[in-house]
Amino acid sequence: MDSPITFGDANAGFQAGIINGPVNTAFHLPPERPETPPSPSIVIPFARDADFVERGTTLDQVERICSSPDSRAALVGLGGVGKSQLAIEHAYRTRKQSPETWVFWVHAGNAARFEQSFRDIADQVKIAGRQDPQANIFKLVHDWLCDSRQRWLLVLDNVDDARFLLSRLANDDGQGQSTNAQVIRKPLREYLPHCERGSILVTTRNKEAARNLVEQRDIIGVEPMDEAQALALFKKKLEAEEDDDDIVELAAALEYMPLALVQAAAYIWQSAPRCSVAQYLEEFRRSESEKTSLLNREAGQLRRDPEAKNSIIVTWQISFEYLRHYNPTAAGLLSLMSFFDRQGIPETLIHGGRRVKRASTASNRRKKSTRQRIKALFGRTKSDPDAQRERSESDSDGVNFENDVGALRDLCFISVNTEGATFGMHSLVQLATRRWLIANGQLERWKDQFIGNLCAKFPTGQYENWADCQALFVHAKAALEHQPYNESTIADWATVLYRAAWYAETIGSITDTVKLATKALQAREKLLGYKHEDTLQSVAMVADAYSLAGRWDEAEKLRKQVRETRKKKLGADHPSTLTSMANLAATYRDQGRWDAAEELEVQTRKKKLGADHPSTLTSMANLGVTYSMQGKEDKAEPLNVQVMETRKKKLGADHPDTLTSMANLASTYRNQGRMANLAATYQNQGRWDAAEELEVQVMETRKKKLGADHPDTLTSMANLASTYWNQEQWDAAEELEVQVMETRRKKLGADHPSTLTSMANLAFTWKAQGRSAEAVVLMRQCVQQRQRVLKASHPDLKSSLAALENWEAE
Known about the structure:
Helix content is 61%, strand content 6%. By secondary structure, it is mainly α. The strands form 3 sheets. The chain has a 6-stranded parallel beta sheet, with helices on both faces. Residues 356-399 are annotated as: Disordered.
């Protein structure tokens, strides 16, 4: 057999010939010269940040964990929340406190950068054999760290996707096998050593990635800054004098996210003097597209991975793409949640509502119909295949939902409240999600789903639904900003806004009532036409909103339109027509046109709907109020008593309508006491005591049920003050009247008729207390404002003008 030929190190020439046997060649690199081991140093690609702002106890936690032998910690939070900045600061503090400690930085965004970082470490510490192209660089660094006599800190930055650390690499049996070979033996994670002298700090957006590297107890959540921290960071980065209040407002709008704050400061600094903090904030609030434009601008970040994006919107959208690729159902859940208000997102509105329903075929509908008839006849058993499949689908959906929630929580996109039933999101994450949906042509799909889910759950504004309305109200207001294009969805959208306006009216939120009702009306009129009953309901709701706001002439115009349209369509005796008449009568009463109000209310009462029908009781109550305003207390009292007793039985003593009836009766008693005092023929004190007892009861119940600043509660307080006034308890009356006037001024506005009534009442009290000069000044102001908002014929304006003239003549 022919002998093999081997070319050794000394063979430097070229040899050629005819060779019949096998040839083995061995190439030997010149032996490496021994290198002097370097002294420990800090090997990270970023300088220390002189503008660093302390983040509470976060670094204390990191130091506590990493000071232990063989320790690992992870900083987990949204992209742009400042994880890497914290890691940089910890690295420099470690080096300062312990100069004999090595500090290394590893870019861990992917396998290639991870490997390059390990090669950089090998070069820095001069590991023998590192230049051998067949060397396993991971094993070399691992072994050096394990054998090191000095302490070391290894920072793994941006481990957002840990899968490359969990997959296997080539064998490391010492035979020089290339790390790119096909024989897969060992995961990269195993090259992160456990040894007494070392500690590892991980930064990641993904809690699941952190759990693959660090014990759960050593994971540290990084939240956005607090107000003081954000203010300090912004001022350091801006390096210009700006109003602190403006900066605090901007920081809140940016949700205290460090990267967003640095972006904004850089933009303002670069644009100065043409842009200030106040101007930036104004532009930011102008529209969603303006927000996106500002947040998309990249700002130079010297201490941020050069491959990372310096725009917070783009930073998050990279995570969205990751989610869509690896967990599309979780991406769908995030898409749906991006339309809600940022807080209190109920599970009931998102669980099971993430998929757009497919239209069933005629064949499937026939099969389903047959199955349904059989089940209706014979019922279901546990062995029923359909029942089993439905149970299985339900169980599967529950598991999938929990998995998706877990995935979103791991990426820090959502939070869960303490009870676990509602979720929260950062509004900027929601904005970034919606812009991502636009870019992918998915916005309308998920908007339709959001509106459909909300429409299915948001109830009407009756008292018994208030708890549900309250929980969903903020999400209905959020829907205002998401007008759809699909016609069927527009109908659902208008329904949501109408019901939300109904609830807003009951809680006395005038601004919300006007805004929601107006939008619902515009949508319904365009979709259904003016004469459709749904549209007329919306017109009536807008009129209610105007009435609440004291815009009585506008309310009258709309209520007349509704009444006339319903008369023609439904007939004069239809309950909806009668409701329109009652509402118009209420407007006449507000305008001081008591005779016109009485005429309509008498007509309404004649229509027979049943003695205890809600509409009958409402018309009786309205007529009773009108009689009281006309001074016809003998007619008002029996009506008010009957309505109150009936409502107590049917609705309960605490129902808002019952409380209104009690308040009306108390007003009647008070007025009867006043008239009896004038005639000197009636034991007026007994009536006032009865009035006081009822008014206190109503006021306290309304405070609990409606809140201290609800318009109805304020009316109760004003009524009680009037009773105190009649009883000559001036100080008690003044205390309530001042409180009512100030609250109405804040809630309703300085020119609202109810606010002006409070001013007039307080002026009368001051006059009774002997504070004539103050009373004249206040009444003069009241008259001037009433002349702006009321017609000259209004009784309230006439009475205040007469009082002012008398007082000035004294």
